[in-house]
Each structure stands twice: as C-alpha cells, then as structure tokens.
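Section: Multi-chain targets

For targets with more than one molecule, the full set of components is provided together so that the structure can be written out for the assembly as a whole rather than chain by chain. Components appear in the order listed by the source. The example entry contains two components.
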Amino acid sequence: MTTTDAPLSGVTVLDLSHVYAGPYATLMLAQAGARIVKIEPPAGEHLRRRGAVPGPRYAFAMLNSGKESLALDLKSAEGIALFKRLVIAADVLVENFTPGVMDRLGIGWDTLKEINPRLVYAQSSGYGTTGPYATYPAMDLTVQAMAGVVSATGYPGSDPVKSGAAVCDFSAGINLYGAITTALFRRERTGRGGRVEVSMMESVFPMLMSSLSSHYSTGEEVERVGNQHPGLSVAPYSVFATKDGHVAITCEGDHHWRALAVLMGRPELGEHEHYAGVKARVARREEVDELVAEWTGTLTKEEAFERLRAAKVPSAPVRTVAEVASDPHLAARGYLYPQDHPELGPITAMGSPITFEDSDAPARSASPLHADAEDLLRDLLAVGVEEYEQLAAAGAFGTQPDTAR
Amino acid sequence: MTTTDAPLSGVTVLDLSHVYAGPYATLMLAQAGARIVKIEPPAGEHLRRRGAVPGPRYAFAMLNSGKESLALDLKSAEGIALFKRLVIAADVLVENFTPGVMDRLGIGWDTLKEINPRLVYAQSSGYGTTGPYATYPAMDLTVQAMAGVVSATGYPGSDPVKSGAAVCDFSAGINLYGAITTALFRRERTGRGGRVEVSMMESVFPMLMSSLSSHYSTGEEVERVGNQHPGLSVAPYSVFATKDGHVAITCEGDHHWRALAVLMGRPELGEHEHYAGVKARVARREEVDELVAEWTGTLTKEEAFERLRAAKVPSAPVRTVAEVASDPHLAARGYLYPQDHPELGPITAMGSPITFEDSDAPARSASPLHADAEDLLRDLLAVGVEEYEQLAAAGAFGTQPDTAR
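Its structure, encoded as tokens over all components, is:
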C-alpha cells in the first residue's frame, strides 16, 4: 500500500479523528506514505453513516482514501486494552475530540506516554486545550464567526456571510499534518515523542492579515469590502459580471492597467491623468470598475480570461463548483484521479497539495468499516485467528451494522 | 534566538519568499525553532517598502518576527556566488516565485542539488510547476476565483463574493511548512534532500469538500447558500442579527433545538411536529430561521452567545476584526503577545497554531533590512570583516535605501 521511497514510509498512525480536520490530516499523511489505521466506533465514523443524502458518503470516501479501518469499542475494557497494545506498535496518534474526551476514556496523553514515550500525540480542537474558550463548541461555522472570517466576508453595508469554503476545518487539518511531521522530525533527532496541538481559531487568524494589520496600525475598525482589495489600495481589483458568469481582475501595476485599457479598446485611458497611477484609480474606484464591467459584460468569462491572460493582466474566471470538480489542470497534474470504490463505484479521488518529486499517491480506496481488521491486527500485533475470535467475542470491536459496510 | 529544545533547533533556512504564503511558512518554521535567513532584494522585500498605507509594514513585522535579514543582489555575479556558498551551509531553501524564475536566475533546483544534495528545496506557487495553468498569474483573489471559493461564497441569487480571509495564500503557506518538515524527516532517515512543491489551488480545493462531494454524487451544479449549511441538511444553521451585530447558531441534533426552544421562551416548539427532527426543520427552514431571528433580535450578540453556550447549543458571536485583534483567549494562550519593534514600537505579534508542550515562540522582532548581515555571514560562512567589506564593495548586497531600514 505504501511506497517504500515515500517520505513517511514506515510510519504507523492510529487515527481516532472524525469528519474533516483530523481525517484530512491523516489523508495527507497517507499520501506521504504513512500507514493509517482508522479506528472507528463500532457503528463507523458518523460521516460514513450519513446515508440520507449522497454527499457525505462521497466526502468520506475522498477523505479516507488509502486508510485501513478498525472498529473498536473504546467503552469496553477489551477495546481499551487492545487500543493500548496498538499504541505500543504505533508512531503517531491523531484525535480531534473536544479537549478532555480522551482523558475521560482513560487514554489521554498522560496515560499513553507511559505506554509509549516515543509516541507523537497530535490533537486538533476549535480553540486549543488551554484558555477560556477551550471547551467552547467548535464547528467550521462557529469558528469562522469567532475568528472574524464571517465579519470580514460580504459586501459593505450588507449582512456578513461565511466563506463558502470550510476554511477552519481544513486549515486546522493542514496544520495538524505539519504538527505531526515536525514532531516526527524531532523524534528522529532526540528519540522523544510528545504531545502537540493545533487550534482551529489560530489556524485561520493569520488569514485576516491584511485586515488585522490595518486595524493594528490605525486602531480603527475594518469594514468588509466585498470583492475589493482588503486594504482598498488597488484598483481595479474586483470580480466583474460577464455574459455567463464572472471574472476576477486585478491591476497592481500601471502596466497592467495600460494593457487592460488596450483590451477594452480604449488605449487612451491607460495614460489618462484620471487613471494613471494606482492612487488615481483608487480615488475613482467606482468609475474604474464601471469601465471594466462595461467591457467584461460583452464577453464570456473564459473569453475575458483568455484575453487578459494573453495581455498579462492578472485575472481568473470565477469557476463554479462543477467546473472545479472536473478541472483539467488538476487532472493533468494527477491531483484529481479516478479510483474504484467498493460501494460508490468509480469516484474522483484527490491527492495531496504537497508534491514530492519521487512519490506516488496511494491507489487504494477507503476501506469498508473493519474490513482489514484481521490482517491489520496480525500484522501489527501478531494476533492469530484464535485470538481474533476471542477479542471479537469479548466485545473489543463492538457490533458492526451491515449497512455501514 | 532559537530554543535548544525546540523541534527544529539547528535547522537553517534560506528564505527567498515574499508577501504571504512563503513568509508565513518560514514564520512557522522560526516558531518551531529554525533559524531563518531572509534573503531580500537590495531594496528589501516589497511588503517592507509599502510605506504609503500603514497596514503592510505592520503585516511585514508580524510575518517576519524572529527572522534575520540579508540583502543580496541576485542579479550580480557576486550575489549569486555568495548565495551558492550559503546553500552549502543551509538545510532548507524556500521560494514562492512564479515557476521558472529561479532557473532563470541560475539557481534552480537542478543547479543547487549539485551544490548541496542534502538541501530541501521547497516552493509554493499558484498552480504548481506542471500542468496547463503552471504559469497563470496567481494571487489570492485569482486563485479563489479559479478554485471555486468565490463562486461558493455569498447569498443565493446574489453576486458571488470572495472570502474576506486570504485562504489561498495562507493555506499554501501552512502546506509549505508541512512540506518542509516532511522532507526534513525523510532526510534524517535517508540522508537525501529533495525538491517539494505546493500548489495554492490544491491547498484550497479540499475546503469545498461539502459542495464538491454533493456535486460528485449528484452530477448537479451546487449553488452558494449564504450562511446556510453547505448541504442544506441542518436547520437552524445560520448567522442571525442581534441588537449589535450577529450570532452564528447551529442545531445539528434535536436536543440542541429543544434547548434553543426553551431559551426562546417557547419550549413547546421543541416537541412540535413541525420542528421535531432535523428533516422537519429543514423543510421549514425559513420559518425556523424567522423564529430564531425574532429571539436573537432582542439580545446583544454576546448575551445571545452566553445563553446559548450555557444551554450547550453550538454558537458563536460574529466577532469583528477589531475584536479578534484583541481577543482575550488568544492572549491567554500566548498566541498573541506584545513585542517591541525597532520602527513601529510596541506591536502585537502572533505565535504558531502548532503548539508543542515544551517550546517557546521567538521573542525577537523582525530584523531591519540587512541589519544582521555581518554577524550572519561570519556565523554561517566564517566571513571576516575584510571579506565582508570586499563583498559589499563588489556589489553582492546591492544598495540599501535608508528609508527601508
């Protein structure tokens, strides 16, 4: 399953995480060559079980590609005992429960470090394990609200709106990946494992850098700016309507503006005193935006983009979700690739945004719940057929519903 | 400057990157204990030089905390020669130029790996170094457009709007950090360095997971949903107006809804057949949202949040940028901390979202341009006073404007 030459080849990860942040971190670990043992509750991770709408099962498949599945009943003594044996065999443990849950299960870091001091214990939570918000409920929407992303998004004078991207979940997931690889590096040098944590709120905080630095340096509140430049210091810088959608355009330099003026068939505007120089254009932003919109309105978004690109004006079509889902560039790079899934049939799988010159993405799809359990336990703990049956009879794995397979 | 026990203690990084993605990655490296040599053009990185508005200089200070500065003229033979000597002394090189720029400067990976095969060469770009979009212009706005974030953000039936957070720049930066730590881990085990790259577009792609998986499983286009749940399968799930701002509320479970009904002073709604069960509430979403808004409109956002929190209903106040900038939780955790800056005076510095149990953030502020150059070159390359003067006279450092200091 793992490539021998892959960067994290030989690293075994116990993954207790669920939904987005944790599973995305371990997907990235899998794609860098680690072996991921996804430890699920007896009925399966709840994203796997959301059968009513088709999206969640597909998301589960995409996020858990290349992972092995083991159902464990962590509320049974047998489940906990087996988990502790696995901890001895593992390099990394990942979880994204609310702080305190692992301690209540009796498998917090203070316990596990006695069992395996080389273990890297990595956790992600909404606000971290310390500070007044530590136990606040944290989901992508609430952390976006608390971290200022909602307030900073939308048009001035209108209601705030969340980012349509799950920025908190996934930025925490990426940080969790980096936390683990950093701790693994340190372990190579020192022999020590350790606990490392990621906060979702801190993961998104720097993303408001333009607005934050403007506030810090002026002391003034910062209003949302729609599609304008966060510092309102570039023009044009916006999203413009076309015949069939929108196109994003920005002219940081005067040469961009001059090139755009030529495209618009009005080369004289490039040198006109009203528009030459970014300060002049910023002062007449609305007028500038109207001029640009007049031109984009005569084209499709792809036509506008092709012309802007040829003229070296920074721009991009506003692609819809369906367009992004089948983006030819992502396919050409091998980032999106076809995969066969045991239940869903042919699906589109995604790679890692981190590409090593000499490493391949895993070809294997997400495992059905508990499907690899016997092989896995034989491999990691030398559990034989007989012992496996005993563990099952004692309730270590709980009961797997047929529907969850 | 670096903590001996810090995870990346002893790692030396040459940082050629600029603005957000690269400098954020090396800020995180600095906070994990690496030594960062920020190599700037003779006049300084352009974010440092944007003097007209105060925000960019503050952003520069926040993003470059704890880094040493070296001005190098990479268009001079002396600058290139000195750079190559530094490469021998370094563990990591970071850059986020448009693909091809380093090759044109004569210091691409193919050249540098001959000089130092243990070097980790890490690069971030908008679309990666391969594929049809490789040389497309990439800034946060254009990548948000291309990756579907703009299309997925905003209210249904209204114009799309970008995320107010610079999600592309910073998610690429976090991935770049993880790329480097992964490559360093591999180098510990294999002795080999290597080239690793990050694509901004691929960094944000998974953030649309809910929308993408919905599209992949139905084949249908996915419309933006304002503040609603991306799959429209939870209600209430939105941002509601209060007396002084907004509050985000979500009721994934029936127990959340029952608790909310009690808070609203209408406990009978908790069990009412129109609202009991998430499917019933989803079917009457607008009606449910009106009921909730009626209640939130009587409170301030903090009052609403305190009551919801006490009743264990997932929620959060929609905090403004100014509120986030002085968030007491982030200060209590030591994520935001005071720092003295040579030009700006006392500033607010930020830590890393990755917290190791036993590691401290760097106390040092961003260096003035080229301020540490002599010490740095003595330390890394044993360059003495005389040789330093020769290098300066030969133009290796170019000319530093006084205003940039």
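Chain A has 19 helices and twelve strands.
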